[in-house]
Amino acid sequence: MKEKDKRQMILEAFRASEFKWRTASGLAKDTGLPVLAIESFLEQSPDVTRSKKFNSHGQLLYALKPGVTTAARSEHVFLFQSVPERYDLREKLIPGTRDTWYATRYRRDMCRGDIVFFWLAGEPNYRGIYGWGSLLGLPYQKSEWDSYGVDVQYEVSFREPILASSLVGDNVLREMLIFRAPQATNFLLSSDEANSLLRFLKDRGEELPAIGS
User: Which class would CATH give 77-203?
Assistant: First the structure.
């Protein structure tokens, strides 16, 4: 590559970086979200930021509002797991309240409005899903944790927990990663797993999240 071409590439990269920083700074000021979270949104959603539908500051601001999803991005469905010694969902999962969870995996897949099911690890008599909620924003770095966190709102606490032992009878749900490699906080469900879980919950008469509606 010629030296002139190299300089041009460096200049273009610098301009793109400066544009992203200025855009992120402005959006952060207007939304109150951390600049790093805005930059993460822009990096995760290049298809959105290039779209004619979201080609202005105001439209990007709209995309960052609570509950807003874009046609360019499919909703993701997660399982977040806790252990009772550190965070007991039987006490903590109160509909309408908010909390912050570790975001150690799949951070680039997380976006405001995504649905989260909450799983309590432990003994067979209580291990399972206790309810669901939604992500309130993008993951952000928490210095006191030396890790990333993501804010959630609890929406529904099930009348009775959906025990893991009742899920393994389903051919799809038994293959969820939380059964095969359970040592983590964050799990991303496939569309088949999410749909199977919704059908299972519907048969149990539990309140369902609006996924894909």
Answer: alpha beta
